[in-house]
Amino acid sequence: MSTALAPADTAVNLTACPFCGSGCTLTLADAEAFPVLGDPVTRGALCLRGWSAGELLDSPLRVLSARMRIRGSPLAKAPLETALDHAASRLAAIRAKHGPASIGILASARLTLEELHLLAGLAHAIGTPHLDALQRLGTVPGPSLGLDAIALAQGILVVGTDLSVRHPQVHRRVLQALGRGVPVRFVGANAGPLATLATEWIRRLPGREVEAAVLAARPDDLVLWSSELALHGQGGPALRRLGGAHSWRLPDFVNQLGLQEAGIHPRAGGLAAYEMLQRAAAGQLKALLVFADDPFEFFPALAARAFQGAEFVLVTDAVATRAAEAADVVLPGSLLAEKAGTLLAADGSRRAIEVAHVARAGMSEGEVARRLAAALGGKAGPAPRAAAFAPGPDGAAPDAPTPDYPLIAALDGATLWSTHPLVGATVTARREVWGPRTDFPDGWVTIHPAAAKALGVRHGWTVRLESDCGGLLLAVRTDPHAAPGTALVPMHCWERAGTALGALEVDPCLRIPVFRPRAVRIGRQ
Amino acid sequence: MSDARYWASAAALEGILDRLAAERTLIGPVRRGGDVYFRPVQRAADLCRDYVNALEPPKRWFLPTPERLARYRLPGGVSVPGGDTPRELVFFGIRSCDVAGLAQLTRFFSGETVGRPDVADGPFMARRERTTILSVVCQDPAETCMCVCCKGGPALDAGYDWQLTALTSGWLIEVGSAKGRELTTRFASSLAPAGERQLAEQAGRIAGVVESFHRHSTRRVQSMAAGRMVSQGRLPEAFWSALGERCVECGGCAFVCPTCNCFNVVDAPEAGSGVLPPAGGPEPAVPGGPVATGAEGTFERIRLRDSCQLAGFVRQYGGSYPRATCGERCRTRFFHKLSWQFVARVGTLGCTGCGRCVQVCLGGIGIDAVSQRMTDALVGAPAAAPAAKGA
Ligand code: SF4
Ligand code: SF4
Ligand code: SF4
To answer: How far is the CA of B152 from the centre of ligand 3 (A)?
Structure first.
């Protein structure tokens, strides 16, 4: 039996890793990803997600054909043109009946800049102001620095982010700086690798990192931070107090800066992504167009109500997701490796990517947007540039521990990738990040082993995690990386735990859902 | 060193390679930007001349990932795809460290290391048997190269079909196998017996590389001292947990290592089935899990490259992790690189000194830095900060 994939061509094509904001360049040798040695960011290294990127090409979860349902019936395969026509006519009917603002569009950071502009064009053609992306997370307006800034830094202050998970290439440069004797200080609660390796570890509870960093920062420190701060409701303070010439907010996802450039954020009169889900759930938004993202990963209950509440949902994605399963029409998208286009790298520079693999499905998200915009006519020409995002006021402050509620519940940033739809479509990266999800299928809370001992609970036991608003049952995982005094909830339990504990809020500054650190206690079951 | 040595002019070698490219798939170094990749080429003129090595190890041609091992329909039973014969490949220009790595992989996948030829890996061996290796001796190694420490180069005594050394004029060819002898017979008219002067030039060039390494390179695989520390279990827990803190579990060191052979086998619905994980459920049946009883559809058995450094690699069914921490998994990896026990079992070190793990490691713990730390532990010196040397 021979099953070696025969590499027919001699070409070496360079694409980008579709995951984090590092923006590594990789080649696909057949379906096997390798880092590029000469690329100034990649320098021959990838993290496991990048190494697994080739597994996406033939993933069982690839969407290779269109599917549609006539309300209520199961999704069934349909010719691409039929499904596109059906989607266009449903959207036209909804617009005619309820007006253009009854349609919302959810974009994604894993589309090229050109595609994001096509999505803006689609919103313009429909006439809706509702265009945003859940993957905007904690993106805040501001300048970008580059890896050179780390090479030149005299001192580095890393605030509240586990770079080894969030930004492995920056983590690598920070370790190299440590090796050169540059003082690296880490502000944060949890014991990630940098916390232990850093020159100094300034321990603060989740939600308290910004104020500690402002006090600790020295004039020529390079300040590195990521969306964890914003996800804990600290987006406003971080934006206003950590910004500045020596501050680099590291983007989480590959083309997250492209979202900013293409004006994909709440516009005047427009809803934010999370608000679109809320309005659809309330029956006020009649149609949702979801491109290359899965709102069910973070917000399964709200997404289910939104998909139920909307009259029509179109999902376009390269991989099957729960969103696709719940949609009325599913159209096949393409992976970055199958596209040519431009990405905005973490340092804000433009990067061209090449087609590194023949497109499996022959359609891309951008093409779908272009076709729908043409079918829905309306205003021709490119969309006018959206105004820059205007941040609002700060959100509520995080809780402090109390005698009755001595622990602070927060999100576990180390679990970010377990909710990424593309990670879920690989074999190897998925196996690594899904291990705990397999071991604790009903969710968990992570506490320090000493805290478990003090509470008299053991790894694997079920406990009640509760705040003054209410509580929920979760399994306990003990892990020394959780700071004593914290109770960490994995990202995929954000909605469930956040709702029960009264931690899930919308941040008025960035208009994103956040998990406000809440004072909690753990009770034995 | 093999006894049969020949000389060929540059033009004659080019002619030989062109003839081979016409009848088989010729794979050699090509350049894109500043990097070198091994790719099929149409003719010898397409090959790049000044290169050190590629980051992709040649093992990807023998253990492609993902590799589709079988395909079956349920209900119904197993249908293994009928054996397409792998293509005849000719590698030109691969380096000694990779020839040595391939030899080690072949000993493993042929069952030789465990004395069990009956468990030989069919797909690997079929590809290996249809491959001709024309290796080229390095004369200008990279800053990360350490083959001299591991008997992995710059030249080898065996493992190749032909080993070529570029001389001031033409090439010296050493023949290392029956397949190599067939080639010499076939291309006899293009070859001349090597003369004393050419042999002396080759020996001088190789000695020059070795000497330059000892003099100028700052990197070493400290196989003696480090091997002793690992083999005798003299490194404390704290040594390994400190390594574990630096490793981000990217798997890269194993993926690029020419000797690493870890792989994973999973059953999954065929590509593009669009089968979804059950809503809110735990590990779905796909990809990677067992196919549920009563499943319907077409499934594939896929082999993927893997790394013993990864937690998921050691996870047992039911959720226990025998080597639970990254530090413990680091210990296994380096035991399989440097220990006497490993050498006794496999015949050589698990490292040929290619230096790739130095290039790919996000944590700055390539084998040079780790073996240096082990040596420091032996002599009682404070552990060197590996980041200082990290790629
Ligand atoms: S560091 Fe980021 S861009 Fe690079 S391989 Fe990992 S996920 Fe991809
Ligand atoms: S351990 Fe490192 S240097 Fe040694 S053969 Fe493997 S990749 Fe090359
Ligand atoms: S290359 Fe380095 S960081 Fe990656 S798995 Fe190997 S030791 Fe760990």
So the answer is: 22
Q: Is residue A308 part of a domain?
A: yes
CB atoms A10 and B248 under 8 Å: no
Are A440 and A466 within one domain?
Answer: yes
Instruction: Please identify among residues 332-371 of chain A the ones whose CB lies closer than 8 Å to any CB of chain B.
Output: 360
Q: Does B387 touch chain A (CB under 8 A)?
A: yes
Q: Quick check: B161 contacting A, CB < 8 Å?
A: no
B369 close to ligand 2 (CB < 6 Angstrom):
no
Across the strands, what pairs with A344? A350
What does the block give as tokens for A29? 């040798």
Q: Put residue B159 in one of left, alpha, beta given phi > 0 → left and psi -120 to 50 → alpha.
A: left
- What is the number of the ligand 2 atom nearest to the C-alpha of B97? 5
Cβ atoms of residues B229 and B235 within 8 Å:
yes
Amino acid at B108: F
A75 at the B interface (CB within 8 A)? no
Residue in B closest to A321 by C-alpha: B276
The helix/strand/coil state of B164 is strand
- Do A418 and A513 share a domain, yes or no? yes
Verify whether the Cβ–Cβ distance B386 to A62 is below 8 Å.
no
Do A286 and A368 lie in one domain? The reply is yes
Identify the CATH number of the domain in which residue A276 sits: 3.40.50.740
Number of folded domains in chain A?
Answer: 3
Based on the domain organization, do A270 and A318 belong to the same domain? yes
A41 at B interface, C-beta within 8 A: no
Q: Which residue is associated with the tokens 């070496």?
A: A12
Q: Do B315 and A435 touch (CB under 8 A)?
A: yes
Provide the domain limits for residue A226.
Answer: 147-250
Q: Are the C-beta atoms of residues A272 and A266 closer than 8 Å to each other?
A: yes
Cis peptide before B141 (omega within 30 of 0): no
Q: Which A-chain residues 281-320 have CB contacts (< 8 A) with chain B?
A: 296, 300, 320
Determine which helix (DSSP H) or strand (DSSP E) holds A247, and give its type and residue range.
strand A247-249
Q: Are residues A278 and A413 in the same domain?
A: no
Render each residue's pLDDT in chain B as its tens digit; 391 residues.
456 899 999 999 999 999 999 999 999 999 998 899 999 999 999 999 899 999 999 999 999 999 988 888 877 777 766 567 889 999 999 999 999 999 999 999 999 998 999 999 999 999 999 999 999 999 999 999 999 999 999 999 999 999 999 999 999 999 999 999 999 999 999 999 999 999 999 999 999 999 999 999 999 999 888 888 899 988 999 999 999 999 999 999 999 999 999 999 988 888 766 655 443 333 343 344 445 555 677 888 899 999 999 998 988 877 788 898 999 999 999 999 999 999 998 889 999 999 999 999 999 999 999 999 999 988 886 554 444 333 3
